[in-house]
Amino acid sequence: MSGILDRIARVNRRFRPSTYHEYFALQFANKLADTSNLSFYLSLCEKHPFDLLLHTYRCVLKHNSKDKPSDFFYRLKSRLTENNNEST
What we know:
Elements: H1 3-14, H2 20-31, H3 38-47, H4 50-62, H5 69-86
């Protein structure tokens, strides 16, 4: 691994969730094979309801794409949160 990847791997290996939101974010990042962006998932879990995030994740699982699941998730999450904000 390159130097930056080694540092990221060390940081994520040491992360120990202390709240339900942190645990959810860690599991989400693991499921999407995107632990290097754990802070992104932590932020999502603080800002959005779990049911919206789970719905988005389920859409990613159903979608057969050449994209990495995390890339597809980013795009889909943006659309879903925009729709969620319009309906409130």
